[in-house]
Specification:
By secondary structure, the protein is mainly α. It has one domain. Helix content is 67%, strand content 0%. Helix 1 packs across helix 8, helix 2 runs parallel beside helix 5 and helix 5 packs antiparallel against helix 6.
Length: 183
């Protein structure tokens, strides 16, 4: 039985484009440090191609870690988070929950880059993300289990996305999606 964090292929394709939008907004934070490293940009392009049906899930599952390796080459924390956002967007072909990971890492990157109030910067980024999620995207994201409740996977209790700034960002997104989504 597949994980409830997976989503079906159609819903993963729907949320992949939104995840790519979230990651692309913070890509300049990575490229400011490593302008010649195109791995995060390529991951975002692949997420968009997957969303359009031009790439299959199997091929993308094999390539999903490439952008994540770019994060290990970055030193600036906001650049690291931006690369991880791109990697999460590419991971949507594997598991729909990674769309929330792309959004959360983008919010974290914005907060890390903020020169003043990081919390306000994160809140503003989350608002942009929600405002740019179509009803189809919101409905697909609403199918995901609440962060921290499912045992396994990136949203699971103790999972990569369940704690800290990332977990808080996802909780805020899910609360808003749950209250406005047409499931």
């Amino acid at each position: 039985m597949p994980s409830p964090q997976t989503l079906d292929d159609l819903d993963r394709r729907r949320v992949a484009a939104w995840a790519a939008d979230c990651a692309e907004r913070v890509l300049p934070l990575f490229e400011a440090e490593l302008p010649d490293d195109d791995r995060p940009r390529d991951a975002i392009a692949r997420a968009r191609a997957y969303a359009r049906g031009e790439l299959d899930a199997a091929g993308e599952i094999r390539r999903r870690f490439v952008a994540g390796r770019a994060a290990s080459d970055a030193v600036v924390p906001a650049a690291v988070a931006a690369a991880r956002s791109a990697a999460q967007a590419a991971g949507v072909a594997h598991m729909g929950a990674h769309a929330l990971g792309a959004a959360a890492y983008a919010a974290k990157a914005v907060g890390l880059a903020a020169s003043a109030d990081a919390d306000a910067a994160i809140a503003q980024e989350l608002r942009w993300q929600l405002d740019h999620a179509s009803e189809e995207v919101r409905a697909a994201l609403a199918l995901l289990p609440p962060v921290g409740e499912h045992r396994a996977g990136p949203l699971g209790d103790g999972g990569l996305l369940a704690t800290g700034v990332l977990g808080e960002a996802i909780r805020r997104l899910q609360a808003d999606i749950g209250s406005t989504s047409v499931a």
